[in-house]
């Protein structure tokens, strides 16, 4: 199935502090078959660590990358930066109208998954 994706959202949680990570800039990039990249939207995590909608317009099925600029957050909250940027690349098949990609971060690791 390859429908249109109306909304792509993310949620950043600081697992060291046990709370949402606020103020992290996020950029949504579309990745072309040739590896070319174009910016499709952006936002910043709110006090609950969420960007409710990264895309400005509906997205066709395809490959996308969420780029989180985490350096400022880690420097301020943890006094140390190992991952100044976290990029999560996903292939959206268009089977859902909304895809949610949470990212769990700590000073020296991160993980992500397909949320609901």
TrEMBL record:
The keyword Magnesium does not apply. Keywords: Hydrolase, Purine metabolism. InterPro entries: Hydroxyisourate_hydrolase, Transthyretin/HIU_hydrolase, Transthyretin/HIU_hydrolase_d, Transthyretin/HIU_hydrolase_sf. Residues 8-115 form the Transthyretin/hydroxyisourate hydrolase domain. One of its GO terms (molecular function) is hydroxyisourate hydrolase activity. It catalyses: 5-hydroxyisourate + H2O = 5-hydroxy-2-oxo-4-ureido-2,5-dihydro-1H-imidazole-5-carboxylate + H(+). It comes from the Bacteria. It is an enzyme of class 3 (hydrolase). Substrate binds at residues 11, 50, 113. GO terms for biological process: purine nucleobase metabolic process. Its EC number is 3.5.2.17. Catalyzes the hydrolysis of 5-hydroxyisourate (HIU) to 2-oxo-4-hydroxy-4-carboxy-5-ureidoimidazoline (OHCU). Homotetramer. Belongs to the transthyretin family. 5-hydroxyisourate hydrolase subfamily. This is 5-hydroxyisourate hydrolase. The gene is uraH.
């Amino acid at each position: 199935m390859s429908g249109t994706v109306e909304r792509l959202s993310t949620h950043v949680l600081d697992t060291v502090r046990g709370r949402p990570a606020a103020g992290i800039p996020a950029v949504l990039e579309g990745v072309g078959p040739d590896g070319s990249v174009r910016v499709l939207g952006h936002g910043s995590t709110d006090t609950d660590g969420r960007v409710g909608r990264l895309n400005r317009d509906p997205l066709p099925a395809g490959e996308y990358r969420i780029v989180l600029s985490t350096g400022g957050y880690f420097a301020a909250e943890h006094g140390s930066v190992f991952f100044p940027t976290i990029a999560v690349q996903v292939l959206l098949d268009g089977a859902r109208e909304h895809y949610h990609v949470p990212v769990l971060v700590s000073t020296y690791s991160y993980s992500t998954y397909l949320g609901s």
